[in-house]
Specification:
Layout (H helix, E strand, L loop, with lengths): L3 H20 L12 H13 L7 E5 L6 H14 L3 E6 H6 L5 H12 L10 E6 L7 H11 L3 E7 L3 H4 L2 H6 L1 E2 L7 H8 L15 H10 L4 H10 L1 H8 L5 H10 L2 H4 L4 H23 L4 H4 L2 H10 L5 H8 L3 H13 L3 E4 L5 H6 L3 E4 L2 H12 L3 H4 L1 H16 L8 E2 L9 E4 L3 E6 L7 H9 L4 E6 L4 E2 L5 E5 H4 L3
Parallel strand pairs: 1-4, 1-5, 2-3, 3-4, 10-11, 11-13
Antiparallel strand pairs: 6-7, 8-9, 9-10, 12-13
Length: 478
């Protein structure tokens, strides 16, 4: 087995060779970078300019969103600028080397010839999958406190944002990495640089559409603002093949899927991602027994096939206790494989009525359903997949917490989502010409200010002035 000293030397010597396939294709053409890299560059710029309070950046996110690729891209930018950089994979350190992050960093200090507190030059640490070391918080807190000359970016499981201690939270900056939206996905798919204005006519339009949808005074104001944006929305879409919408829902939310041509291979790779979350992330961060962990894929298949989850029925199907199932669902939620949406109403109602579970990316549900439905999975489940997409968009848009802003109407025929911001807004999702009955029913019950029906339709407002039809091609811009 490689010892930690050899591993650190290998990382310093071989990192360019190991990381290069993550940043360019086989012809050597660089992959387009996700927008989050702009925020990382700003942190690094400030650090280089001696603004050193924000020198520990934590990036949690769902597996497959591109966290390792982001670190690889930053590695080459930093080394090109002649910075001293170490890239580490804590998964390898713990599970292959049998060591830990603390020991790895102590060995790196020996390579540097000084402790971190004795540094007379800047050092950059890029640490991947940091959650595999259970003491990662204490180690990074110590590094932060020892030296203002060490800049750290670490990535890991979505659960990192929930595990961070108050001490570490005060010292670090949290930058969640989400699945891609439509505009970012299309730019990456086409290998077009979004930083060039001529390539990004949607610039600024995303915020205006979002404001029209969720910050309007009332339904009439929402409709008026959407109608005013029509020419700019049309200008964006006139050069885009309408089939790109289906392609995006199928594979466009997770970057790795854009590089795989065969659809079945995309689903297999996605199942590999899910299996890695189960076998590594969930196993490492929970106390679930091996027997329970072995049933998680079955739980995901049930979730993928159902609109709502009644814990007692699901537990019976999986032959596990209801309390154990709740622990499984909580683990999947923490990993952002699923997004739990509580029923609208009182605390008692939230406990009594079943929660609804959407998937963090529609590709996750589609890969699971392809096991059962094969090539017909997409057409048979387009409504559910679109609902996942809307839920994931709202999750990204409103800070990644559904404890307050997002619920659903649990009554029979109730609307898909209840968004509670400054106003209360009903959201219904579906393909084809959607009626207003469900929106109107929920609108009255929850005393909402107005309702949105998102589908492949035209912008319209009903005779009450409270229910607005929102074309999918508007919503995809936010």
């Amino acid at each position: 087995m490689t010892d930690i000293k050899t591993y650190i030397q290998n990382q310093l010597n071989r990192a360019p060779l190991l990381l290069k396939p993550l940043v360019q294709d086989e012809q050597g053409k660089p992959y387009i970078q996700r927008k989050i890299i702009l925020r990382m560059r700003e942190y690094i710029k400030n650090f280089n300019g001696n603004f050193r309070e924000s020198r520990l950046i934590i990036i949690p996110g769902l597996r497959g969103v591109g966290k390792t690729t982001l670190l690889a891209q930053l590695y080459f930018e930093l080394t090109a600028a002649r910075k001293e950089v170490l890239y580490l994979s804590v998964d390898e350190i713990v599970n292959l080397i049998g060591s830990n992050l603390y020991t790895a960093l102590k060995e790196y200090e020996r390579v540097l010839g000084t402790s971190f507190e004795g540094l007379d030059r800047d050092v950059f640490l890029l640490i991947d999958e940091v959650h595999f070391d259970k003491q990662w918080q204490a180690v990074l807190k110590s590094v932060f406190d020892k030296s203002r000359r060490v800049f750290v970016i670490c990535t890991g499981s979505s659960a990192l944002s929930l595990q961070s201690t108050p001490d570490l939270a005060r010292r670090s900056q949290l930058e969640k990495m989400y699945p891609m939206n439509f505009t970012e996905s299309l730019l990456m798919k086409s290998n077009i640089n979004p930083d060039e204005p001529e390539n990004n006519p949607v610039s600024g339009l995303d915020e205006e559409v979002a404001a029209a949808l969720f910050e309007a005074v009332d339904g009439a104001d929402c409709y008026r603002k959407l109608a005013a944006l029509q020419s700019r929305v049309n200008e964006y879409w006139k050069r885009i093949d309408p089939l790109e919408i289906d392609a995006f829902i199928k594979r466009g939310t997770l970057p790795f899927a854009l590089r795989i041509k065969d659809e079945s291979a995309v689903y297999q790779r996605t199942m590999d991602v899910l299996d890695k979350v189960i076998s590594a992330d969930i196993t490492d961060t929970t106390r679930l027994t091996p027997e329970t962990v072995s049933k998680i894929r079955g739980a995901l298949l049930i979730l993928a096939s159902n609109d709502e989850t009644v814990a007692t029925n699901m537990a019976r199907s999986l032959e596990m206790r209801a309390s154990t199932l709740l622990s499984v669902l909580e683990a999947l939620e923490r990993a952002e494989i699923v997004l739990r949406i509580f029923p609208f109403g009182s605390t008692e109602r939230k406990i009594r009525k079943p929660s609804k579970y959407c998937f963090g990316s529609p590709l996750l549900r589609l890969a699971l359903l392809s096991v059962v439905d094969g090539s017909a999975a997409f057409e048979k489940n387009k409504g559910r997949l679109l609902e996942d997409l809307v839920a994931a968009t709202l999750y990204r848009r409103f800070g990644g917490s559904f404890l307050a802003p997002l619920q659903y109407d649990a009554q029979k025929g109730g609307a898909d989502f209840v968004v509670s911001l400054k106003n209360r807004i009903i959201v219904e999702v579906g393909w084809g010409e959607k009626g207003n009955r469900q929106v109107f029913q929920s609108l009255t019950k929850v005393r909402a200010d107005y309702g949105l029906t998102i589908s492949d339709t035209d912008v319209a407002i009903d005779e009450t002035g409270k229910m607005i039809k929102v074309p999918l091609n508007y919503f995809l811009l936010i």
